[in-house]
Specification:
The chain is an alpha/beta fold. It contains 10 helices and 8 strands. An 8-stranded parallel beta sheet has the order 2-1-3-8-7-4-5-6, sandwiched between helices. It is globular and about 45 Å long.
Length: 302
């Protein structure tokens, strides 16, 4: 049985003029509902404002919560922060935090949203408002639930916001494997960055992931992994520059789950990126959740 966190505020209508295609979170939810007893559902929560402010600037947090984000920041985010978007922005980090707590009890849990790795201290960016990964990781260490948290980001885009927000914080480390020439143009510095050339496929990707991530895990010895499980390294992704097949994505996620299991580490995943036909992308996210679960031994291959 896979433990999944969802909050109704994840599913909201697109703001006027949005460049981002909404609806993915609802489709992921619906596809998981179809799996019946394979999934155990957990409710999410709105992240307390003080916990968000521990990572993001107070003034920016106030702008979002009041749905009064300046136009320049909204352009950088890619959509208007309407009142429903403000509620969603508070629910998503609460869901990643909740998934982490469930994972500590059950080994693995997935959030049906999240992975907002481009959000910075004083602004959102790249379709990300608040950085759920950084907020959740920081809170888990700050409150003493975890001694060390490692954010593993396999999205095709570098996790620049997560890297910058968590840099220098005790008990926190970041790993990003991404297409080097893809967005963002100006990269931040993660604890470990692995930039890949355009067109890298399954074999080279998986070999590079193993060769770089395993030593970091063994050196840092995290208490928990937060996994930004973006499916945009897929060869047909609209915003990707890598060339993984669906089988390669599945192998990546099974390997990640198996590595966590072998090291005795709980792992909590967030969706991350995926761009193209919404239903196809939603199916990739669901496949990712089940592949991680298979690797951890929670479920057999679907």
């Amino acid at each position: 049985m896979i433990h999944v966190v969802h909050h109704p505020d994840y599913v909201a209508e697109a703001p006027p003029g949005s460049r981002y295609r909404w609806g993915k979170n609802g489709l992921v939810r619906d596809l998981l509902i179809e799996r019946g007893d394979d999934v155990r559902w957990h409710g999410g929560m709105h992240m307390p404002r003080a916990w968000i402010e521990a990572v993001h600037d107070d003034a920016y947090v106030a702008e979002v919560i009041a749905a009064r984000v300046p136009p320049a920041k909204e352009r950088r985010i890619g959509f208007a922060v309407t009142p429903p978007m403000a509620l969603r922005a508070q629910a998503v980090p609460g869901g990643t935090y909740a998934a982490a707590l469930v994972a500590l009890d059950h080994g693995y849990a997935a959030n049906t949203a999240g992975g907002s790795h481009h959000a910075l201290a004083d602004t959102g960016a790249g379709y990300c408002v608040f950085n759920d990964l950084a907020i959740a990781a920081n809170r888990l260490v700050e409150e003493g639930t975890c001694a060390r948290v490692l954010v593993v980001d396999v999205d095709v885009h570098q996790g620049d916001g997560t890297a910058s927000l968590l840099a220098g914080r005790h008990g926190l480390a970041t790993y990003s494997i991404h297409a080097e020439k893809n967005f963002p143009a100006r990269k931040a510095r993660s604890t470990l960055d692995v930039g890949l050339a355009d067109g890298v496929g399954d074999d080279e990707y998986l070999a590079t992931l193993a060769a770089t991530l395993v030593p970091l895990i063994d050196r840092f010895a995290p208490s928990l992994i937060l996994y930004q499980a973006g499916v945009d390294p897929f060869a047909g992704d609209r915003l990707g520059r890598l060339a993984l097949t669906q089988a390669g994505l599945d192998a990546r996620d099974r390997w990640m789950g198996a590595l966590a299991r072998a090291r005795g580490l709980p792992i909590a995943s967030a969706l991350g990126g995926g761009y193209g036909d919404l239903l196809e992308v939603a199916h990739r996210h669901v496949a990712s959740i089940f592949a991680v679960a298979e690797g951890t031994g929670v479920v057999a291959r679907a």
